[in-house]
Design goal:
Length: 342
């Protein structure tokens, strides 16, 4: 007999798992791992399931990381916040601002838990998780050793970290520590934030603006199943952007420090007139083309087919091939999302 995963992932698709365990402690995570090993079950750890697509019934144990706790410290230059991986990210942003600690306001309303924020190196409006990461506490499942990793050791990249690659089946994040400087400066590089006055704006102003932007563009996962941005923003080279600008002068692009050019994936999809496009019960959200939604009892195949069509349309028009930001999970664990939708 399998157990429904529907309430444990924000796409809200009807998929099941052999076993689901809510782990409130480190010992509970280790015990779940040991049980899975003895039974020869696949094993994965989830937060709120806000960045995953289950392709089929998971033939193993899904552990919900619910390790909580928030502790504050400070010195003359910064605040240090030690946070359990199972804490809600947006609630943490709100709590810091209530305590008069600025810094995380640009990352408001990003769904998911704190541990997932580290894995994904979440980012929005010119700010990324790695900008504040002081250390990450993990448990090595194979040795049951607790390890503290520095920010550099986590090898953060664009929506990327060591936890998505060589350590993804070895380490489980149990806590993070964020360092928020007392010499705060507003980051007002994107969207409506550009209109705010940097000399008078406060962190709460930015928080309110970001919340307004996100609520006006993005569907509430509790109402419409979705995982937020489905695709990563792609990076291209100088020659490619020149070609694009010659044909589409209004293409939104953002030069990077390494010389690459970041392009807004949502704009690319929108130019293909795909807002509202449907496959079965799945659709491209009508307010934000970067979001794929479970509009009406979508199946995993509906989402995959829709993502395939979106990727092909954008690729054929712009010669830019989008990659999912979402983790794809088959019966035995994470699989290659690009291969699935290609």
């Amino acid at each position: 007999m399998t157990i429904s995963l529907k309430k444990f992932h924000t796409f809200g698709i009807e998929v099941n798992a052999q076993k689901i365990i809510i782990a409130n402690t480190l010992d509970a995570i280790i015990t779940s791992w040991e049980i899975s090993q003895r039974a020869n079950y696949p094993f994965i750890v989830l937060g709120e399931g806000s960045n995953v697509l289950f392709l089929e019934t998971f033939s193993g144990c899904v552990v919900i990381n619910a390790v909580k706790g928030i502790f504050f410290d400070e010195d003359k230059d910064a605040w240090y916040i030690h946070v359990g991986a199972g804490e809600n990210w947006h609630a943490l942003v709100e709590l810091t601002l209530k305590k008069g600690i600025p810094g995380l306001e640009n990352l408001a309303l990003i769904p998911g838990l704190v541990g997932s924020a580290a894995i994904q190196n979440i980012g929005a409006y010119g700010v990324n998780f790695k900008d504040f990461c002081y250390y990450i506490d993990v448990i090595n499942l194979f040795t049951q050793q607790k390890i503290r990793l520095s920010c550099d050791e986590c090898q953060f990249g664009y929506r990327d970290s060591i936890f998505k690659h060589i350590q993804k089946n070895k380490y489980v994040i149990i806590a993070v520590c964020l360092r928020l400087t007392k010499h705060w400066k507003p980051v007002l590089k994107y969207s409506e934030l550009i209109n705010l006055n940097p000399s008078t704006v406060c962190a709460k102003d930015i928080f309110k603006t970001v919340c307004h932007i996100r609520q006006s563009k993005l569907p509430d996962p509790s109402v419409i199943g979705n995982v937020g941005s489905f695709f990563k923003n792609p990076f291209i080279k100088d020659k490619h952007i020149i070609t694009l600008l010659n044909r589409w002068p209004n293409v939104p692009y953002y030069p990077q420090a390494n010389g690459d050019i970041k392009i807004a994936a949502g704009w690319l999809i929108d130019q293909c007139n795909l807002k509202g496009h449907r496959v079965g019960g799945a659709a491209v959200y009508h307010k934000q083309a970067l979001v794929l939604i479970n509009e009406h009892h979508a199946t995993p195949n509906d989402i995959v087919s829709l993502a395939h069509q979106v990727r092909n349309k954008v690729g054929e028009k712009f010669n830019i091939w989008l990659e999912p930001e979402v983790h794809f999970i088959n019966a035995y664990g994470e699989c290659n999302a690009v291969e699935v939708i290609s």
